[in-house]
Amino acid sequence: MSAAAALPAVPAHGCGDAPVLRERGQREVFCGLTGIVWLHRKIQDAFFLVVGSRTCAHLLQSAAGVMIFAEPRFATAIIDERDLAGLADCNDELDRVVTRLIERRPDIKLLFLVGSCPSEVIKLDLSRAAQRLSRRFSPGVRVLNYSGSGIETTFTQGEDACLAALVPEMPAEPGTARSLLVVGALAEVVEDQFLRLFAALGVGPVRFLPSRRAAELPPIGPGTRYILAQPFLGDTARALDARGATRIAAPFPLGVEGTTAWLTAAAEVWGTPAGRIADAIAPAATRARAALGRIRERLSGKSVFFFPDSQLEIPLARFLSRELGMRLAEVGTPYLHKQHLAEELAMLPEGTLLSEGQHVERQLDRCRAEKPDIAVCGLGLANPLEAEGMTTKWSIELVFTPIQGFDQAADLAELFARPLVRRAKLMV
Ligand code: SF4
């Protein structure tokens, strides 16, 4: 069976112009510091120093699953009461902490000073601190800064802020040679699969942001075409545009349909003939479709309700509804970037309830009224909803797990099928 025959027709209008329920109120989300948990694994010679409070340190420890490393690559420089009362010079303290860290850890090539609510409250200027420390420790160590503060942000915005801080550091690409930049942290296994597929499609050279090593930041210039691998990178995209790069518009590489469209969008920019695109994609797409078919039986007809959390909600909703036959009760997202999500919105079933932002009490009422088969939400809502008898999926797990690309499509579907199977067993 071909991909086209297995999928519902793309809706005539989709949700591109659909009204969006905009809500403001109490929110239940993690802050941008959470991004450190996956970014420190990704950029292997970087260190993340949060300039924050004990609360920030606890958040990081619990989000990281209290991972104890012999040589961890993130830490918190605690701002204590003396600092908050203005009794100590925070800049001197920070310089001392950084100096000690760099002396002890010669493996660190890139140090991020990560701002938090407390550092913002006392107006500690981390960008000046980063410049000062960069001058002191260059060329061995580069010091950059970004904010992971929780005020009005969501946890994936930490990655956006981190990558946006890296863009000005990317070397200029000499000339106008064309290259592809894949933007957004991906598991290495996924990067390797995409590299093989891009080679078969005649697309290259292909580089990734973030790169695995700080010293290997990809070059950028007017010949750079970039494609987003994650939907929460608005600031990074703006910074790349400012460096002269051009975005390739595409859906996101979730599921067979999303991955096919994402790869095809890049291949078309390279002028790859349609026949070659089809041949290059067919083996992996066929395998993935067969694997999805087995899970579809368990998910088809079930309803899903998305609370706004990761900003992955809209591509996930498209995948679950179109490839697995699930019904979308509500698709909430913390922030709806209409331009970056245009291709995704066009594929959502007409009439889908889209909401942006959060008024948690009202949304909980809507969720209880809907009684969805599964609710996708943050950790703070999952336990109370489970206690009310609802099946939940932690949205943060979808960011930690490799879910992009053909070979991961079935794993992604399993993440939704498993909690339903578990619930069904408990009900027997
Ligand atoms: Fe809490 Fe703000 Fe620290 Fe995040 S940055 S853990 S929201 S105090």
Q: Characterize the main sheet.
A: 6 strands, parallel
Estimate the strand proportion. 15-25%
Uncertain regions spanning at least 5 consecutive residues: 1-5
Query: CATH homologous superfamily of the largest domain, by name?
Result: Nitrogenase molybdenum iron protein domain
Specify Rg, calculated over alpha carbons. Answer: 22 Å
CATH architecture of the largest domain: 3-Layer(aba) Sandwich
The distinct ligands, each listed once, are: iron/sulfur cluster
Report the CATH topology name of the largest domain. Rossmann fold
Structural class: alpha/beta
Strand elements, count: 14
State the strand order across the main sheet.
1-12-11-10-13-14
Count the domains. 3
How many helices does DSSP assign?
18
Oligomeric state, counting identical vs distinct chains: single chain
Just give the CATH class of the largest domain. Alpha Beta
- Helicity level: 40-55%
**CA-based shape:** globular
Give the N-terminus to C-terminus distance in angstroms: 36 Å
Report mean pLDDT, rounded to a whole number: 91
